[in-house]
Each structure stands twice: as C-alpha cells, then as structure tokens.
Amino acid sequence: MSGGATAYVAHDPRRAHGMERSIAHAGPASKRIVTGYGFWIFLLSDMVMFSCFFASYAVLRGQTAGGPSGAQLFDLKNVAVETGCLLLSSFTCGLASIAADVRNKALFQLAMAITCVLGLAFLSIEGREFAGLVARGAGPSRSAFLSAFFTLVGCHGVHVSAGILWLLTMMAQVFAKGFRADIQRRFLCFALFWHALDIIWVAVFSVVYLLGSAA
Amino acid sequence: MSDQHYELHGQAEVAPGDEAEVSIGQRLLGYVTGLGLAILLTATSFFVAGTDLVWQPSIPVAIIVLAIAQMGVHLVFFLHITTGADNTNNVLALAFGLLIVLLVIGGSLWIMANLNHNMMPMDQLMQMQR
Questions:
Q1: How many domains is chain A built from?
Q2: Is residue B54 part of a domain?
Q3: Domain region containing B40
Q4: Does residue B46 fall inside a structural domain?
Q5: Torsion-angle region of residue A20: left (phi > 0), alpha (psi -120 to 50) or beta?
Q6: Is the terminal CB of chain A with fewer CB neighbours within 10 Å at N or C?
C-alpha cells in the first residue's frame, strides 16, 4: 500500500497543475485505509467462494432426481419479506456508520439494535423455510439440486449469523470503550461485511428464487 | 475531497466503505437514494418474475440484468466503491475479484454443459456396463 500510495500521488492529475510536486513522499497510508483495504480483499475472496457455490447450484439446478423442483418449493412472498429485512438492515447499518462518525452513542446503539432485529427476522424466516422443506421430505439429501440449494443459501445464512454475533460485539465494544480509533476501524469492517452480505443476497434471491420459480 | 484536505493529509485514497469528505446531510441522502433504488429494482425483479405481461423468454435475462444493476447500486451507495480518483485501488481489487467470479461461474457452466452434451445417453451407458 505505501509504495502504491506514493506512486499514485505522483501521478494524480490534480498535482499536475497548481501545486508543484512538493510532497514526493506521501508516506504510508493511514491505518484505517490499510485495514479497510485488507478487509475489502477478504470480502472479495468471500465472494469468490460464493461464486463456487453459485456455479455448483447453476450446474445442478435441473438434477432433481425425480424430487420436487424449485418452482414447486419456493414461496416468493417469504423471499420478498426476507429481502425487505436485509435491505432495511443495510440502510440502518449505514445510519450507524454516520452515527459512529459523528460519535453519537445513542443513535449508534439504536441503529445497530434495529439492524440486529432485522437480521434476526431474516434468519428466523429462513430457518422456518428450511425446517418446512426438511419436514416435507425436501431436505438436502433428497437430490443434487436440493444439496446445492441448502449449501448456497445456508452458507449465506451462516454469514448473516456470524454478522449478527459481530454486530452484538460491536455494540458492546462501543458501549464499553466508546468510539476509539481501533473500534472505529472494526466498525468500518463490520459495515463493509454487512453491506457485502446484502449484495450476495441480491444474487441469491435473483438466481435461486426468482429464476427458480420462473423456469 | 477539497484540495485543502487533500494537501493536508497528502493522501490520494479512501478506505473502502468510507466516503470522500461530504456533509452528514449528503451522506444520509446517499443512503436514502441507495435504499430507494434498491427497493425499486427489487420490486421490479419480483414483479417481472411473476407477471404474464412481458414476453416469457425475456424474463430470466431481465432478472439477471436487474440483479446486476442492484449490485451496482449497493456498491456505490452502501459500500461507496465509486469511480473517484481516490478509490482506484478498491475498484481494481473489485475488478480482479469480478474476473475470478466470472471465470468460475462461466467456466463451470460451459464445461459442465459440454460434458453433458458429449455424454452417451444413460440407457446406452447401462447396456455397455452389462
């Protein structure tokens, strides 16, 4: 990062006019940038992992082994409510980012609490859906299609669960330690994680549920 | 980012998720815009999936295009991965991630469809094993 930052500053067009190249060495990037960038790389690797699950789902979509297909199993109303929960939670997470930056503890805790409730609502709806499928004999062992379905959607659900644990940790840390620089960096990473989960959910509801019930 | 800020910090980057210097009102407006666009795109997707009003074979394409558009909205308005000069590193990392994702998904579908196409029909295969 530090080398890249220096080289980058030298090439910045804004430097070409007005200012001379007085700052030849901008120095290493701030810790916040390094941490955020590292976590962004992790998130991208997580998306690469999800792409493998998406690829296996796409390949195995039609292999129902005589069992039920997606069109017979999926309830789009459920999915719409789940999507609404995650979208709103992404928004409230953004509100929490603003609250963290202006160091408003009450607003931060409120926004995080709403985010947590929406995340839990999402998880409970998904859990009920999974339990219903297993009860109808459409569990992950029924067909290759259902194995791929449970792996992909379940993996996203596991990420959301981990995100909620992290969210509660962040609430406790801000409560106990306030908006210290290191806590702010952790919260930056959490916000990135939570928004990235929403992006993956967009792919899940489009590819799995909407395409699954359209075809 | 104002020039003054730029000079003071001597930094040409922002962390992913961070925005260049803007007021609280503008940031809030960004999140509201993002939420509005996301809801609009989601609602369109769900509507298209369940309607008889559009030409049926176009539905899967429409759903995928809407999904990609919505991911873009999330990236810009929630993750603040923009095309700004201070965001180049983040965008390049994203581009590389995207390349791998497309290779994995496209490659898997292509190879598996090809194998499927070249495989002997199951009844003939069973006879050969007898």
A1: 1
A2: yes
A3: 19-79
A4: yes
A5: beta
A6: C
Q: Is B23 helix (H, G, I), strand (E, B) or coil?
A: coil
Establish if B120 belongs to a structural domain.
no
ipTM > 0.90, yes or no: no
Whole-angstrom Cα distance, residue A160 to residue A106?
A: 24
Per-state percent for chain B, helix, strand, coil, to nearest 5: 75, 0, 25
Whole-prediction pTM: 0.85
For the stretch A18-53, pLDDT in tens is 444 455 667 788 899 999 999 999 999 999 999 999
Binary contact (B14, A33; C-beta < 8 A): yes
Closest residue in chain A to residue B92, using alpha carbons only:
A41
Classify residue B1: in a domain, yes or no: no
Query: What average pLDDT does the segment A174-182 reach?
Result: 95
Domain that holds residue A192: 31-214
Separation CA A18–CA A132 (nearest Å) = 66
Residues sharing a CB contact under 8 Å with residue B87, sequence separation 6 or more, in sequence order: B13, B14, B80, B81
* Cβ–Cβ below 8 Å for A58 and B88: no
What is the total count of domains within chain B?
Answer: 1
Of A26, A210, A214, the CB nearest to B11: A26
